[in-house]
Amino acid sequence: MPRRKVTETTTLDNRGAKIGEPVPKAVIDTKTATVGVPRQPDHDLREELSALRKQIGALQQQVLNAGRSAKGSARNALRQTEAAVKLYPASTLLLVAAVAGALAFAGRRASLQRHRSRSALRELMDLYTTIRSRA
After folding, report:
1. 4 backbone φψ class: left, alpha, beta (φ>0; ψ -120 to 50)
2. Averaged pLDDT, 27-42
3. Taking Cα atoms as reference points, which of 3, 5, 4, 23 lies closest to residue 13?
4. Lateral strand order in the sheet of 34-35
5. What SS3 class is residue 57?
6. Confidence of residue 127 (pLDDT cuts 50, 70, 90)
7. For the whole prediction, is pTM greater than 0.85?
8. 82 Cβ partners below 8 Å, 6+ apart?
9. Contact 9, 35 (CB under 8 A)
């Protein structure tokens, strides 16, 4: 069993500590000149749990509100996009074609870089074979 904590406080000696005197293992309050662990208020677990439940409820409500807000924003963006397509069909078609061209160009560049790295690997292998054949 753990030892019980001493909750009683004693006053400090105003004359000063004597050499060799044991130092108390506790909180020393210089304002009130007391030594010891101050008495802690008893905690009611029911109160703490109810406070935590209230905080969890508030957090859940905030998450729900944020989700609803994001959902509403997405709906508004979809409506605005549909309206822009209806009002400007030619501009929309050009924009989609430009994006598709950019993606195709980027994909082609990435595939070319892959082929270049294979040829560099082949060159290294050929160099290694050449050096080995000389030895």
Report:
1. beta
2. 73
3. 23
4. 10-11, 34-35, 28-29
5. helix
6. confident
7. no
8. none
9. yes
